[in-house]
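Box 3.1 A note on notation
Throughout this textbook, protein chains are presented in two layers. The first layer is the amino acid sequence; the second is a token string describing backbone geometry. Keep the layers aligned when reading.
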Amino acid sequence: MRVLAAMSGGVDSAVAAARAVDAGHEVVGVHMALSRQPGTLRTGARGCCTIEDARDARRAADVLGIPFYVWDLSETFVADVVEDFVAEYAAGRTPNPCVRCNERIKFAALLDKALALGFDAVCTGHYARVVRAPDGGARLHRARDRAKDQSYVLAVVAPAELEHSLFPLGDAESKDEVRAEAQRRGLAVAAKPDSHDICFIPDGDTRGFLRRHLGEQPGEVVDAAGEVVGTHAGTYGFTVGQRRGLGVDRPAPDGRPRYVLSISPAERRVVVGAAEELRVRRLLAASPVWGGDAPEGPVEVAAQVRAHGEAVPARARVVAGQVEVLLHEPLTGVAPGQTVALYVGDRVLGSATITTTARD
């Protein structure tokens, strides 16, 4: 196959590209330039998509002996990821930009361009597996290394796109194995730290980034009874479950910590309360993406709402085109805007975007 290897400049994508070469594919490496001003991004390899990452990717491609290109996808990235991130926070929701990037950049814009150029598949360094179902369709499964599994952030990728996706690291036993392989291959990125943080917020100050985009929008912080206990500069600076930086000027009557319970941008109001008030048992989620046919009735699943969170037993069913998830064990700090991924064993049954939560 002709394979386009997305090379971020990290060790995972470099080894994934190397494994694709070993598998006999005709591989071309590409680095996605996602920032309009890459010189302003962080150095030190803590983020991704920086100038140094592009150089690291090129050096890895040279070692592998494959052609390498840099594609400018910055306009698409800003429109589909950065602006979406700002709009979601402005609406009082908590998005995951990595989920959106996978959905709209790596497995939409990049894959579409690859197919148009005659490539058969896109290869990435994600830790996940694509397994063929009895009907011949592609199904997303967890990686062998559960500690590195990234199927959650890929759960929004449609089966038609998985048909043209390769995840060579899905069967890796551990990240140490991948680093050791990179070392043996002479790849300079073997010891490069993993990327963290949001790549388009170089200083890690999410609240400051949003303030620069949305401006000051002062309002009140109130308790569950409606009593004003503080002020804020914008509801976009908060997320459900948050404990620190609440702007509360006095402790709760019982002395216990307060947490963000809900956010109302239209009223410029943030409601805070006790930890137990964060426990939810029911989720309603929209825009489902199914790894095959949607279930016709209630189905027992494991529900995961964070990239590195635990999956809990639940029952899911489709209700008027949306997904209702009844949790057998309560979760805390679940915010509208988050993705809920549904698993049956190691297989991703589907995913959807949480719109509302309830304690009952």
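The first strand starts at residue 2 and ends at 6. Residues 39-47 have pLDDT under 50 and may be disordered.
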